Structure formats: C-alpha cells, structure tokens
Amino acid sequence: MKKILLLLVLTVTTTLFSQDKRVPVDTTVVTSYSATINGKKITYKAQTGTQPVFDANGNVKATLFYTYYYRTDVTRSEDRPIIMSFNGGPGSASVWMHIAYTGPKTLKIDDEGNPIQPYGIKDNPYSVLDVADIVFINPVNTGYSRPVVKKDEKVDKKYFFGVNADAKYLADWLNTFITRNNKWKAPKYIIGESYGGTRVMQLAYELQSRQWMYLNGVIMVSPADYKLIRTGASEDYAINFPYYTAAAWYHKQLPSELQQKDLLDILPESEDFAINKLLPALAKGGYIGETEKNNIAEKMAYYSGVKKEVILRHNLELPKAYFWKELLRDRNGKTIGRLDSRYLGLDRTETGTRPDYSPELVSWLHSFTPAINYYTQNVLKFKTDVKYNMFGPVHPWDFSNDNSRENLRKAMAQNPYLHVLVQSGYYDGATTYSAAKYTMGKIDPSGKLKDRMSFKGYRSGHMMYLRKEDLEKANQDLRAFILKSSKNVGAAKY
C-alpha cells in the first residue's frame, strides 16, 4: 500500500486547553493510498486528527483522536456503509482492531500472532474497507484523546468514566462526526471489542433514542458482559466452563477419547454438561449430596484436564485464574494465557493460585505499541510529542445502572433493520465464547429477536484476528453481515 499525497493539515486553536496542552483540540490530516483488498484494487483516504466533544451548551469537554478510512473510487460516497469502531478496557485505545483486524493495515506478526522484528505494519488484504468506510475512535484518555478544561479547572471525570456517561458523550461525538462527514444517509454499524461489547450495547440505544441515529448493525467482538463477568455467581462458573474444555483440548490435556475428536465436536458436549448438570449442582451449594458432588467433579475433570481432587478442593467452583496456573503445572510447569490460552508463560515458581503475568498481553503490547506509534506519525503524518495511551487512566469506572443488555433489546425492538453479530475465540479465557452465547440469550429472553442475531466462533483467542486464518475468516463473516444487513429490504416495520 503506497501513500500518494498529503492533502491537508489544519489545526484549530481555542482559548481552551486539553489536559495535555500539546494535544490540538480540532485538527485534521488527510493522506491518500491505494490497496488490493478482497482481491480488488481500491483507492482510499485516511483522515486522522482530533475532534471535540461538545456538551449540550456547545462547550468543549474533550478532544478525541480518531482515524477515518473512506474509499475514493466510488460514486455516492454518502450512501456507503460506515463502521464506527471501539475497543474496550475500559481504558483501551482503538489500536487493536485498527491495525490488526478491519483496517487497511495490519501488524507484522507471524501466522499465529507472535511478534516479529523489526516491528511495523503491512497491508491487510482482508480488510472490510472494500464494503464499508471505517472510523476508529479513541475515548477520553486513550490514544491521544484527552479532556479539555479551562485554566485552573479540574477534569469532570463523571462526565466520561462510566457505563452510561461513556455512551452519552460518545453518542454526542458521533453525531458531530456523521454530520461533518456527510454520512447521515449511510447504513451505520458500531463495533466494540471486550468492554466495547458493553459499550456498543449501551451506545445502540443512546444513538437511536437521543441522537435519532438508527443503526443497521451492532457487532460485538469477544464481548464482556458485566452482568456475568467476575460476579462469582454459580452462573459465572458454569457458563464459562466450556472454555476449559477448549483450552485443555488445545494443550492436549483431555482424555484420549476426547482428544482424538475435533474441537467443534466436543464443545457441544461440554456446553450441555455445563448448563444441564454443572449449573444446577453449583446452585445447591453446600446442600449438594456427596454422590452427586463426586460425579460432577469427575465429569469436570473429564472435560477440563484438571484433576478431580483439585476440583473437589474448590467445591466445584474452579476459578479461571487457578486453571491458567494449574492446567500444565504437572506437565511442563508453564502457565497459559488469560485472553488467549494458546500462549505460554513462565512463572517464578510452579506453586501458586494464579499466573505472575499474562503472556499473551505482553506479546501483544510487544507488537502493537511500536507499530501504532510508527504508523500514526510516519504514515498517517499525525505529528505529536504526546504519549499514545495504549491503556489510559479512566478509573474508577462507574458500573452502576448497567442496563446495556436491555438497552440493546429495546434498540432492536424499535428498529426492525437492526441486526447483531457476535464474534468470539474459543481460547479466550477472559470473555469466553460460551458467555457471549449466554449474553445473546439474555438480551432477548422472549426469543422473538433471535433471527436477527448471529454467532461466529474462531480457533483463537480474545483477538481472534491475530491468527492469519481467522483474520481472513472473521473479516469475511463481517463483510457478509454488512452486505446482508445493508440491503434495501423494504419498509422498516413488523
């Protein structure tokens, strides 16, 4: 992919200051490129810079760093679908999907996602830019995005850092962006990874109910559902259990009769056991009978690769952190990754209840950090001395009044055009694939909307797109979802 022309550099100064005065409040840099994507040559532009967050009175509250890719070899560009992309954290920049999944550039990594030196980027022939324009947005304190305050004023943290506050100000920002870039007629999609799953569930209703911006699709990549995750409830332990089966299968720790089967043949068995046997057993707590408890522990050992006596010591509630430490403890003493259990780690000691570090996250930061800093400054030509926050200070995050599941249901009920796609990796131990399926069912308990929901699973982890085979497959699934849900299928009515 070749940069053709630097078109425009514009910086608007104001009497306000970002929290870091080196960050411009409203600035744009546009560069031009050509690429071969999905087998066809296209031309496109990358528009990157900062755009203000305005409050209801027109005051500037923050400035968000973004990168917007749009095709230039098309007619009626105002009608082309647009994807509005977020990552998670909360507190994570949009870097991950930007330069590894849907964008026109991807990391220099091997086919399984491991770092390669010298660090950098390369063309992404699987990007969905051929069918949709894409804007990658960095919420406040991520990337180069920062709050904006007058001299001697403090940052209003409650305005930004919470489930509801986050969706509200991002919806305001997106209204401005769509207006500035003439995309009101376009089919619109929002995509969020990890915490971004909660974000886009909440944002869908916020956009439709307060901005009157109706969507064609919500895409959740490895979504984190805080009604389930880290609750320590029986549901949490049971719903996540099939992930143990997937990770154990990958590391060849299951009994031979399971190990010789394909992963997708044994996961339905594990899911059935988790829902119909394990969950009721856990619900009984200390009142479970000894015979049943032993039978359940034996089956858990069978489907997880963890010894029965270890499971019994945990009263059938096997924490994921312990699993990451335990699975290979007696085989080679290594730990497995949290976000992607294909990765291995080395701890100080083989004893303990949780790994010392997350080997997959260390590997990813190894690849992504130099790549995004190089790409932004040298290719996109956004010049700054400000630190790019891969993870920024956003805590404490307000998780109260999290109605994201219900808000997505209401958004779907109110908009017959709105479809949902969920993408998950089987080896993700943080936001498991089975938990994502569970969330889909909880969004719509009536089952009346399930024909507009679809799930796609991949043989990788949290960022399934780091594995070359799944980078292609996940983008093809996303491309098909966009093409189908953006078609004119008649009046929006039931």
Q: What features would you describe in this structure?
A:
By secondary structure, the chain is α/β, with parallel strands linked by helices. It has two domains: 2-228 and 365-485, Alpha/Beta hydrolase fold, catalytic domain (Rossmann fold); 234-360, no CATH class. It is built from 14 helices and 16 strands. It has helices at residues 95-98, 163-180, 195-210, 234-239, 241-250, 256-259, 263-283, 290-304, 308-313, 320-326, 359-379, 404-414, 433-443, 468-485; strands at residues 2-12, 17-18, 26-37, 40-54, 60-71, 82-86, 105-107, 121-123, 133-137, 146-149, 188-193, 217-221, 335-336, 344-345, 419-425, 453-458. The strands form three sheets. Strands 1, 2, 3, 4, 5, 6, 9, 10, 11, 12, 15 and 16 form a twelve-stranded mixed beta sheet that branches. Strand 13 and strand 14 (344-345) form a beta hairpin. Helix 3 crosses helix 12 (404-414). The longest helix is centred in the middle third of the chain and has 21 residues, at 263-283. The model is unreliable at 1-15 (pLDDT under 50). It comes from Tenacibaculum platacis. Pfam families: Peptidase_S10.
